[in-house]
């Protein structure tokens, strides 16, 4: 599966910004829309989220890899999702 569109834009912006507000401003959209994408990306293991003063949204190693390759294997993603929900 190819990574493109808003997903690629968000992952790319996360190399520079770390808050949903900053990402939303960059993409000229509402932060709630970005929140939805971030939740999915977090569930897939591509980003980590941290609350608080030093918190934000951060690319994981998997997220950096996917952004670099621009391609993902759906089986790998399914395994990751199942693994996250078994905890």
TrEMBL record:
SUPFAM superfamilies reported in the protein's UniProt record: Winged helix' DNA-binding domain
Alphabetized Gene3D superfamilies for the sequence: Winged helix-like DNA-binding domain superfamily/Winged helix DNA-binding domain
Protein name (record): Helix-turn-helix type 11 domain protein
Pfam families, sorted: Rrf2 (PF02082)
